Amino acid sequence: MEAYCVKCKSKRQMQDGEKITMKNGRPAMKGKCPVCGTGLYRILSTK
């Protein structure tokens, strides 16, 4: 899954992505940027 990396300032393919549920109950994907190692998050649809 792709997510925007704020350090690289571009979209990157997420590495080691895992589906999580945030505190407010919304689903999200959490992973790492393969280039710089920064944490990436992508909020998913509730549908």
Automatic annotation (TrEMBL):
Protein name: DUF5679 domain-containing protein
Domain DUF5679: residue ranges: 4-43
Organism: marine metagenome
A Pfam short name: DUF5679
